[in-house]
Amino acid sequence: MTVVLEPVPDHVPLPRGFRAAGRHCGLKKDRQSDLGLLVADVPVPAAAIYTKNRLQGAHVHVCRDHLARGNGLVRAVLVNARNANCATGQQGIDDAARCCRELAARLRCPAEQVLMCSTGPIGAPLPAERIVAHLDGLLAAASPDGALDFARAIMTTDSYPKVVAARGDSAAETTGFAKGSGMIHPDMATMLGFLVTNGRTGDARATAAMLQRVADRTFHRATVDGDTSPNDTLILLASGRAAVEPAEVEAQLTAVGRQLARRLAADGEGASRLVTIQVRGARTEGEAAQVGRVIATSPLVKTAVAGLDPNWGRILSAAGRAGVEFAAERARVWVGPADVYSGGRPHPENEPEAHRHLVGETEVVLGVDLGVGLAEAEVWTCDLTKDYVQINADYRT
Question: SS3 sequence, the chain?
Answer without folding.
Answer: CCCCCCCCCCCCCCCCCEEEEEECCCCCCCCCCCEEEEEEEEEEEEEEEECCCCCCEHHHHHHHHHHHHCCCEEEEEEEECCECCECCHHHHHHHHHHHHHHHHHHHCCCHHHEEEEEECCCCCCCCHHHHHHCHHHHHHHCECCCHHHHHHHCCCCCCCCEEEEEECCCCCEEEEEEECCCCCCCCCCCCEEEEEECCCCCCHHHHHHHHHHHHHHCHHHECCCCCCCCCCEEEEEECCCCCCCHHHHHHHHHHHHHHHHHHHHHCCCCCCCEEEEEEEEECCHHHHHHHHHHHHCCHHHHHHHHCCCCCHHHHHHHHHCCCCCCCHHHCEEEECCEEEEECCEECHHHHHHHHHHHHHCCEEEEEEECCCCCEEEEEEEECCCHHHHHHHHCCCC
